[in-house]
Design goal:
This protein has about 260 residues and is of the alpha/beta class. The protein has eight helices and ten strands.
Length: about 260
């Protein structure tokens, strides 16, 4: 696990965007796993700038989103499909046929088969080259709440009261937040060839410390990323305040050989 601490979320996000851009330039048909929420917004803004001003080409890129609320149509203003088209896809030259976001309209017993097909689509695309993640204040990744199996696959999950409260800001009121989602599992996420975890602000400091320096435990799903061979954590100074080895992380990043730099 490589921990990259920068002065602000903007600087961290630009570095993470450059990392993704480098991948796309090396492999134009890269497969990206994408996240939603406020954390990746500056990352997506920078990817849009790179496309518009530096010609970053998304024409052959395939994307898979982590999750979606059950019960929301793709056009619903609070759906993650709507979020992605508003904040990224609608501003780059991505091919809509290469965009995959879980459906929020699957119901009942059809959900299990649908999740299996979503995983099959990922395998058919060649697997995810780079997975973007945020981290919840309780250490969840995707919608894999504390206690989720570390080998879990794409499936339906019931949201905790804390997660629903955290997401209420995007809805008319807290009661409007759905109780259920489809989410990639922890095991699914671990199959990505590279994982980029973004964490910004003091509110994420405890989760970052637990994920990076704490024990690997299902109580902090993000901690399993310690076992991934290529995880980069992009954090601002505020999110790094509870890390013990910050001096070491700065030293390692500042003294990388040129060929290893982003």
């Amino acid at each position: 696990m490589e921990v990259i601490i920068q002065s602000s979320r903007e600087v961290s996000s630009k570095l993470a965007a450059r990392n993704i851009a480098n991948l796309i330039r090396r492999k134009p048909d890269a497969v990206l796993g994408l996240a939603t929420g406020s954390t990746p917004l500056p990352l997506y803004a920078e990817l849009i700038r790179l496309h518009r001003e530096e010609g970053l080409d998304f024409g052959k890129v395939t994307t898979f989103n982590l999750d979606e609320y059950l019960g929301l149509a793709p056009s619903h203003p609070c759906s993650y499909n709507h979020f992605m088209w508003t904040h990224l896809f609608g501003h780059i030259n991505v091919n809509p046929s290469r965009v995959f976001v879980p459906s929020g309209l699957v119901e009942g017993t059809a959900i299990e088969k649908y999740c299996e097909r979503y995983e099959e689509e990922m395998r058919r695309a060649g697997g995810i080259d780079l997975q973007v993640l945020g981290v919840g204040g309780d250490g969840h990744i995707g919608f894999n709440e504390p206690g989720s199996s570390l080998a879990s696959r794409t499936r339906i999950k019931t949201l905790t009261a804390r997660t629903r409260a955290d997401n209420a800001q995007y809805f008319v009121n807290a009661d409007a937040v759905p109780h259920h989602v489809i989410t990639m599992g922890v095991g699914t996420i671990l199959e990505a060839r590279e994982v980029n975890l973004l964490a910004f602000g003091e509110g994420k400091a405890a989760a970052v410390a637990a994920a990076v320096e704490g024990p690997v435990t299902a109580s902090v799903p993000a901690s399993i990323l310690q076992m991934h061979p290529r995880t980069k954590v992009f954090a601002d100074e505020a999110a790094a305040t509870k890390l013990v080895r910050t001096e070491y992380y700065h030293w390692v990043y500042d003294n990388k050989p040129d060929w290893q730099r982003i």
